[in-house]
Amino acid sequence: MLIFVPIAQVGWAQASAGVAPAMRSRVAVRRTDLNPLDTTRRTLAFRVDVDNVGAAVWPASGEVGQRVPSVAFGYYSTRAGDRHRLEEQRIALPYSLAPGEHWSTAMVLDLDAQPLRQLPPGEYDLHVGLVLEGVAWFLDRGDAGVTIPVTIPPG
pTM of this prediction? Predict the structure, then answer.
């Protein structure tokens, strides 16, 4: 049985002094669609591995009530070198992750589907990490996350 301690009680407020103990993650992203000969595909496929190396359970949305924020995996895009977020997406965790636990998923970005279709061709950064819904991205509180350069070709 998992007992959810509000993340604020285990160090969220300490984020201004560095990474909050509750929000320490290890996220690894690996491209799985690297085929330079295939120019017809407008998708990017990745394998994502997430480890909870923090001090608190990350509650999944299906396991907590509305009053307890849940943690989700997500990404947001910016123009290369810019900080302004153009769009963001989430993938709900399938279960809560206790400290030391691991979760993996596949992530496929379709450049011809919304919301990416609305972005003009160019160079972008894809920022991949975790988010405490309704509160903040772990990246904004000092967690490293992963940044992937992405080129959106003319369509």
Answer: 0.74
